[in-house]
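Example for tutorial group B:
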């Protein structure tokens, strides 16, 4: 029973540890799954935005191509007109005699206008071709970015499926741990039942031992009485012998036959004594039969069982104390988690409201708890209302607005719990000039307390940097890192 209790206690501890680990792993995986879902929604928005931009670029490219064709036709027309005018610039002698000066001036004006129109048409055509090439490059870049986003989306779907599988495994592990805990509780219940059975057996043995002790006392008392009777009988026999000797002496003195007299009296006494001894023997035999088979080791077995019962009681009490200590520790940890999470949420919510008003002038944003009464199981919802809009769901915002909301959330965490440095990777890629300037103003607040490493393609972001790092590829396919301090340039 001791080994079984130790094994059950180990199983219960292992099951609780496994359940706690499974719960922690499940919480981490659920958080990653939520983050992956948010990232997937953002990528879907980017894909839709890129597809819309690509369609717009294609329409614009078609318009530019049509304009280029139209300009080509106009250039050809102007060229033909110029050739005709140049041929007419030297008319025959009769026409020259009719009005040479006026006709020449008119022809020169027409030729100059045609040349200017040709130059303008060629400039417009070159600009259209450049615009067409630029649009084609942007379309190709958008297509590549869309392909990358689709691949990233597929990878995110794969990771999401893996996370779902991990969550399912954690659920199964939690179920196994709960089953083990229930089995341990059942084993403890069985141990308690065995303890109760042992206690009932102990009570029965105590009653049996009490009865045996009582019977032993009665037997010892009977034996003492029998011993006293035997001593009394021996004394009577001695007295009878003295009396017999005296009687023989007197009978001899009187001239009687002493032996005949003694034999007659002895027969009577012997019969009486035999009857008395038979009664005593019969009575003692009945008492021995009533006692039944006696276990001489009953007292030792009782003491051993009593010691075993005490040991099991101490072990069960120790398990109960350990369980109570663990529950108190869990409660203390939960209280500490509630305290830390409550403080962190209050600070982040205040910073989010402040930064949201800076990134969305006239707008309103806040963080709310889904279950304020249960901080251990609550979630956090983000409410964002830009100026002039009555929306609360992030999915109804544009891509740039969602980027600003995400930046407000990240900057709120940075402000509430500062860090020595931050790494930002193209966080302002989807922003226009006005929103980009607002984000740069917020980034400027952190420059006095933290170091920021920003990966960007925006020139305005590069302008506020202290040091620029770039990678260029020289001849031979060898890359080189370039460094430039803007203070040195200034």
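The residue assignment follows.
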């Amino acid at each position: 029973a001791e080994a079984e209790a130790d094994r059950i206690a180990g199983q219960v501890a292992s099951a609780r540890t496994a359940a706690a680990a499974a719960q922690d792993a499940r919480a981490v995986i659920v958080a990653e799954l939520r983050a992956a879902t948010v990232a997937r929604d953002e990528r879907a928005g980017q894909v839709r935005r890129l597809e819309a931009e690509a369609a717009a670029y294609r329409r614009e490219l078609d318009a530019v191509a049509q304009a280029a064709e139209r300009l080509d036709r106009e250039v050809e027309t102007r060229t033909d007109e110029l050739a005709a005018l140049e041929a007419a610039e030297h008319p025959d002698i009769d026409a020259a005699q009719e009005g040479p000066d006026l006709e020449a001036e008119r022809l020169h004006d027409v030729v100059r206008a045609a040349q200017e129109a040709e130059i303008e048409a060629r400039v417009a055509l070159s600009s259209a071709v450049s615009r067409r090439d630029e649009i084609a490059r942007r379309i190709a870049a958008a297509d590549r970015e869309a392909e990358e986003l689709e691949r990233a989306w597929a990878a995110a779907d794969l990771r999401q499926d893996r996370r779902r599988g991990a969550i399912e495994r954690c659920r199964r592990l939690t179920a196994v741990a709960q089953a083990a805990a229930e089995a341990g509780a059942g084993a403890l219940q069985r141990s308690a039942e065995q303890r109760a059975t042992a206690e009932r057996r102990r009570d029965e043995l105590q009653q049996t031992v009490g009865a045996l002790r009582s019977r032993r006392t009665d037997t010892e008392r009977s034996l003492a009485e029998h011993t006293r009777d035997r001593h009394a009988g021996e004394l009577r026999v001695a007295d009878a012998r003295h009396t017999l000797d005296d009687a023989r002496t007197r009978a001899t003195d009187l001239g009687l036959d002493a032996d005949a007299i003694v034999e007659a009296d002895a027969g009577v006494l012997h019969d009486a004594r035999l009857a008395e001894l038979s009664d005593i023997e019969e009575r003692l035999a009945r008492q021995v039969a009533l006692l039944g088979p006696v276990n001489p080791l009953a007292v030792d077995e009782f003491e051993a069982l009593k010691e075993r019962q005490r040991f099991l009681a101490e072990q069960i009490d120790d398990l109960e104390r350990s369980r109570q200590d663990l529950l108190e520790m869990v409660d203390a940890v939960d209280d500490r988690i509630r305290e830390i999470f409550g403080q962190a949420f209050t600070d982040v919510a205040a910073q989010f409201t402040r930064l949201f008003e800076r990134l969305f002038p006239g707008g309103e944003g806040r963080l709310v708890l889904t279950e304020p009464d249960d901080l251990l199981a609550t979630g956090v919802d983000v409410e964002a209302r830009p100026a002039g809009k009555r929306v609360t769901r992030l999915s109804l915002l544009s891509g740039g607005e969602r980027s600003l909301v995400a930046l407000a959330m990240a900057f709120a965490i940075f402000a509430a719990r500062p860090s020595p440095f931050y790494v930002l990777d193209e966080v302002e890629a989807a922003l226009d000039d006005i929103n980009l300037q607002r984000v740069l103003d917020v980034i400027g607040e952190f420059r006095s307390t933290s170091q920021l490493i920003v990966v960007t393609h925006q020139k305005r972001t590069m302008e506020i940097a202290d040091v620029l790092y770039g990678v260029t590829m020289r001849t031979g396919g060898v890359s080189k890192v370039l460094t430039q301090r803007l203070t040195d340039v200034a």
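The chain is about 80% helix and 5% strand. Compare this with the pattern of hydrophobic and polar residues in the output above.
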